[in-house]
Design goal:
single chain; alpha+beta; Nucleotidyltransferase, domain 5; 2 domains; seven-stranded mixed sheet; six-stranded mixed sheet; 15 helices
């Protein structure tokens, strides 16, 4: 019988249940898609909570049945979710009282404008910039606009919190009301110093402490999951981006971790010291009885989602878009793209920035401009990260965009850093397995290296892009 781990990765397009052995090798996986509902203005982004929980149950059941048939013994499970997504539910019945409101959602941006005078104070208290992408303004919207939420609050039956907390309550037999650090921090109601809800932040956003789950560590007894009729302890809960760096073993302070999927995120680790970088995000990536790992993070909201936007705008499939981009690579100078898809992220933080092309070109050239805009934004964030630790030596790249060779090479050329692209498509799950196993020193990983090359034309476009973006922001 082979001992193994069950990693649950709940993302914006699907829920995955992945079985890994004690060396991080995938043994099996199941995939269940979920739908995303978007408002016409792009500010509303949400999921159906019943469908989301059902997708997890389906994936767990499929993997569990096959694991039993193969003689695998699942010793522990871990869960990773999108960190800033949230939900409201009834603490007595477990019924969802709101949609699952996505991290991409910006529905309460206008309300949040009233807190602009407190922006610097909020950044100092939470490590996060003031933005509608985080959970607090979404919670406030639910309290203000959803009658079912208001009724449950009046009767004392309301719970609201990170999506991870809702999932744990829904799937674990013990129905725990708990919030891990990675997900609690992205509510913007959590103090990274005390690692608990902060009364002054709760008062500012008007969210009573009694409505929230209890805060705990990343490694904790989160209850048990029913996996094909057998109880499996849920021992780790964290965010998707928080799990990714652990896919390759212990954190390395000289490495920038880039995960490029729907959005793109670049992180560097700092142990037992809360970093201060006002234009970036600072959060707890992991905590247990032995200490705390913090991360400085830059975010690019429009990565894979920017290509989805362009494919919809051009009326072609994403596959055709990428083929047109490949052909355009040798056809001349692409235009510039000022990328505000889902809002302009770090280090600018403008939620309503209007995306635009600067210059002309065919559809392939426009696709290439979108790709370069993602690289440009990542390099801007890398420059913000460089002063906060030893010299950066490499980039470890994960996520769907890593399959694009143009993206990998441009990132190496412009950053001047070696890019190591993981061949593991499920980095979040592999990171969960490493954490569940207690941090094995022997954790092999396969990947491809991209060395930086001279790229004068790319450097020149980057300089023009920065000038165009700064002019647009000033205007």
């Amino acid at each position: 019988m082979q001992h193994c781990y069950l990693a649950l990765d709940q993302g914006g397009h699907a829920s995955r249940a992945i079985l890994l052995d004690e060396a991080g090798n995938r043994l099996d996986e199941a995939y269940a898609p979920i739908a995303t509902q978007r408002g016409a203005d792009g500010a509303v982004v949400e999921h159906d909570p019943q469908q989301l929980i059902g997708s997890l149950r389906q994936a767990i059941a499929e993997v569990g049945v096959r694991a039993q048939a193969a003689g695998h013994v699942i010793t522990a499970a871990g869960l990773a979710t999108q960190r800033s997504s949230m939900a409201c539910w009834n603490r007595r019945t477990g019924m969802a009282l709101s949609p699952v409101i996505s991290w991409q959602d910006r529905r309460h941006a206008a309300w949040l404008q009233a807190l602009e005078p407190r922006r610097d104070w909020i950044r100092e208290r939470t490590g996060l910039v003031l933005t509608p992408h985080y959970g607090a303004s979404k919670m406030r919207w639910c309290l203000d606009h959803l009658p079912a939420v208001q009724a449950a609050a009046a009767s004392g039956e309301l719970v609201m919190g990170p999506l991870a907390s809702f999932i744990v309550f829904s799937l674990a037999g013990e129905r725990p009301l708990l919030a891990d650090p990675a997900n609690a921090s992205r509510t913007q109601l959590w103090d990274p110093r005390t690692r608990d809800w902060a009364d002054d932040l709760l008062a500012l956003f008007g969210v009573p402490r009694a409505l929230l789950p209890a805060c705990t560590t990343s490694r904790h007894d989160f209850g048990t999951l029913d996996v094909a009729g057998r109880p499996v302890p849920l021992g780790v809960v964290t965010g998707d981006q928080s799990a990714v760096p652990f896919a390759f073993g212990p954190l390395d302070p000289a490495t920038a971790y880039v995960n490029a999927g729907t959005g793109a995120f670049v992180q560097r680790a700092i142990r037992n010291r809360l970093p201060e970088a006002p234009r970036l995000l600072a959060s707890v990536v992991w905590s247990d009885a032995d200490g705390v790992d913090y991360m400085l993070e830059g975010t690019v909201n429009g990565a894979g989602s920017a290509f989805d936007w362009l494919a919809g705008r051009e009326g072609i499939s994403p596959a055709a878009l990428f083929e047109a981009m490949r052909l355009a690579d040798s056809a001349g100078e692409p235009p510039l793209f000022l990328n505000g898809i889902s809002g302009l992220g770090a280090p600018y933080w403008v939620s309503g920035f209007a995306s635009r092309f600067v210059g002309g070109g065919d559809i392939g050239a426009r696709a290439l401009a979108v790709l370069e805009s993602i690289v440009f934004l990542l390099v801007v964030n890398l420059d913000e990260l460089r002063p906060h630790g030893p010299a950066l030596e490499r980039i470890v790249l994960t996520g769907g965009l890593g399959a694009n060779l143009l993206f990998c090479q441009r990132l190496a050329d412009l950053s001047g850093l070696q890019v190591w692209r993981s061949e593991e498509p499920e980095a979040t799950a592999r990171g969960l397995a490493w954490l569940l196993g207690g941090g094995s020193a022997a954790w092999p990983a396969q990947g491809t290296g991209f060395a930086p090359r001279p790229a004068a034309a790319l450097q020149a476009r980057f300089a023009r892009w920065r000038g165009a973006l700064e002019a647009a922001l000033a205007g």
